[in-house]
Amino acid sequence: MSEQLDKGQLDIDDLLARRAEVMMKPDLTERIIHAAMRTPQSTSGHGAFSAVVAELLSCFILPRPALSLAVCLLIGVTGGWLTNISPSPSYESDDVFDLVVINEEGWL
Amino acid sequence: MDDTDEGLMRRIQKGDHQAFSLLVRRHSARFYGLSWRLLGNEAEAEDVVQDAFVKLWAQPDLFKVDAGARFTTWFYRVVSNMATDRLRGRKRWAAPESMDMLPDQAKRSDQVLEETEIQEMLEQAIRNLPERQRLALTLCFYEGLSIREASVVMDAGEKAIESLLMRAKAGLRTELAKGGLIGPREERHERTA
Predict the structure, then answer these.
(1) Chain A residues touching B17 at Cβ < 8 A
(2) Is the ipTM of this complex over 0.90?
(3) Which residue ranges form the domains of chain B, and what is each CATH number?
């Protein structure tokens, strides 16, 4: 099929190749250069400062946010699973009294 | 001294006007060609190329030298985007205008007349192509970019560029067959493909 296509495209390619050359006016280059000379450039100090800010901000960019969050979640769940914490809270009696008895010997 | 395009861009980013002049002299004709082929109008093509280069001078940091991209590929993208914006604005606000005639139309012998007619039909057919097809055709056929380079310029996949090219040629063949420039046999081949 591609051979057929190539034969078919021969004419259209030849025809496209006959499209006239584009000629640029010779003074356009100089006009561009002069126009640029009148235009101030926005680089130097401001550019350097914005580059530093951009660099700092780029430190906080997550390359793949969904993947990063999924990994964090997985680490969190695994860590929680492996940590040996009793499901029922256990308090030392002294701790409980510390909370309940506010001030026995104070100014009251 | 590094006189590659990317080296010149480094110097331009430091405010070197001589480097800018060198870059413009090296590439203005090429990008004017692209702009003209997309817009078909001399004045607008000049405006687009001038605006693109002046923007390049004013904000050279837009091109990331260290990112490893080629200057020409990046600038093809800039110019084609600006030309496309211009085309869309023209469609929105103004009636379609005829394309500028190509050069060498002074002599009107029969042969030249015939050639001019062919050129006009060809220009008209290309102009009637959808925007992306015209851009793909211009980049790959007239600017000599590879499919891969065109895919970077157009921000599309290589398969998509191939498909755009194929559809562009099929569309042109149909259009030119109506004018008798191409026989119907070739048209059938394209449809089969």
Answers:
(1) 36-37
(2) no
(3) 1-100 (1.10.1740.10), 102-193 (1.10.10.10)
